[in-house]
Amino acid sequence: MDLTKVFQQVKAASRSLTLISKEKTNEVLVALANEVEAKSADILAANEKDLAKKDPKDPTYDRLKLTAERLKGIADGIRDVAKLPSPIGRTIDERVRPNGLNIKRISVPFGVIGIIYEARPNVSLDVFSLCFKSGNACVLKGGTDAHESNSAIVNVIHDVLKKQGVNEDIVALLPAGRESTGEMLNARGYIDVIIPRGSAGLIRFVIVIAKVPVFETGAVTCHTYFVEKGDVEKGKNIVFNAKTRRPSVCNTLDTIIIHSKRLSDLPAICAPCETKNVTIYADEASYKALEGNYPTGLLEHASADDFGKEWLDYKMSIKTVNNIDEALEHIQNYGTGHSEAIVSEDQTACDKFVQMVDAACVYTNAPTSFSDGGEFGLGAEIGISTQKMHARGPMGLEELNTYKWVIAGNGQVR
Predict the structure, then answer these.
(1) Is the confidence at residue 249, as pLDDT, over 90?
(2) N or C: which end of the chain has fewer CB within 10 A?
(3) If you count DSSP H runs as helices and E runs as strands, how many of each does the chain have, helices first?
């Protein structure tokens, strides 16, 4: 496949998106949601081919797996995106200068967005719906593990676009393999920005190699700090939800940080995790608190490598601290700027935590599992940005637009 030709076609097709009305955009998205449900058997059959090549014990197996229920959820997410206001053409700022010039800053699409992701076929639909709604074409580079699933999904997208009279070239799926990855990362002039979604290794590779600007959605470590005045019932539910709701996704709890004066409550806080066979890697103090109160086969002594680790599995570590400053230092040393939480009935502690933690999403008395575009009311998200340039946190529709200045005069000269 001549990828330069593919990039040229996507770039050219991106300009046609400016001519599609907001009403037509929504009509296409609803049609796509309906077609995903109608063609769910075909998509699931392709997904089974991918799953057959992967060990079910692999932590990424759950990310790869599609079900009828998950496809319905994805389709509902597309319908939700269709209902959201268009981000295109918003007046962000407007002023009239003393010389009479009217200066506006308005939102506009980037043009072409490239997405490189691993074994997450749902990303293909999430990305397309958000890019299309925000006026962007997209180039998709999924992992080899999910190529059958991604191909089936993109075929459905192309079928819908063709029926709706929209240029099919606004979305392209690149071949599996590393060669196409390298060409994509160097497609300057054709792709306007790249968003990587996946492991720390993938993200580092993209940042180092890419000549196209990159939105960083880094590998993640999420903490929950249970303070001296934390509520046990809240803490128990928050930890359980953050760890076990879906352990293979990026907003999952990786490390509990607990105040040393609350170690006696640690068995109660961790008790629900037994039902999901969560393995705990505990430091010395927390190990003693849990020994005899948590299943022996699920309790391990923590090593230095067990902190700052994204588990992506039914596993977590526990760190004991003597005060909030030690907790903040631990997060500073091991956090990744994604999502951090505190469980506390002390408002002063909550305020300090919010002020001092350097992360895209900071929670008080709520689990990090809420770090999600849908939960934030943004519709499906394209990723969670851990950088500080342009977009930070869940990247929804508004984050997929940049802006330009529009200046209206009446013959003024400088």
Answers:
(1) no
(2) C
(3) 14, 16
